[in-house]
Design a protein that fits this description.
The chain is built from seven helices and seven strands; from the N terminus they run H-H-H-E-E-H-E-E-H-E-E-E-H-H. 31% of the residues lie in helices and 20% in strands. Pfam families: RsfS.
């Protein structure tokens, strides 16, 4: 078994076995981590000799969200406002099951698009068992929230000039998490 692992390691391309270039080490990652850690991170986009390759595009994500009947889908260009994503996509799910279905549909389509590829790149998913699921594709981030969380967090106001003047604190309890409690 050790021999087979060694043979696999010896057949890896040189950029996996050789140390990172000094020019990469001089650059800092956008969030403050050293550039060498980027080599080991799973990112849904990567560069190849033929050019840049994206797992899914924004129009494909919009179509998937329409297919799973996500409500109130908004695509916000954020390339001039932040350095970690070019687009923020916000969608509303009607239930916990619907939120999970949105995330599963996006992941499934990313897998299907890469059938036969040498390296499969999957998005990062956070909050899978909550009222707010974040799917990070690298160039864009999808936020799937339930209706109460969407109203409470009002993510659109963070990225658009039309910031809401509504005060959300009077809609919830003293702890600020009133949207999580079903008061019906």
């Amino acid at each position: 078994m050790l021999a087979s692992l060694r043979s696999r390691c010896s057949s890896l391309p040189s950029h996996f076995t050789s140390p990172p270039l000094p020019s990469l080490l001089d650059q800092s990652w956008k969030l403050g981590f050293p550039a060498s850690s980027r080599l080991f991170a799973s990112s849904p986009s990567f560069s190849s000799a033929a050019g840049s390759y994206e797992v899914l595009t924004v129009p494909e994500v919009e179509k998937i969200l329409a297919d799973v009947k996500a409500d109130n889908v908004i695509v916000i260009p954020t390339q001039n406002q932040c350095c970690w994503a070019d687009f923020t996509i916000i969608a509303t799910g009607r239930s916990d099951w619907h939120l999970k279905n949105i995330a599963q549909a996006l992941i499934y389509r990313a897998k299907q698009k890469q059938i036969g590829a040498k390296h499969v790149k999957l998005p990062s998913v956070q909050g899978y068992n909550s009222k707010w699921i974040v799917i990070d594709y690298g160039k864009f981030v999808v936020h799937a929230l339930d209706e109460k969380a969407r109203v409470y967090f009002n993510l659109e106001s963070l990225w658009t000039a039309e910031a809401s003047t509504n005060d959300n604190s009077d809609k919830v309890g003293d702890d600020g998490l009133g949207f999580l409690v079903d008061k019906s």
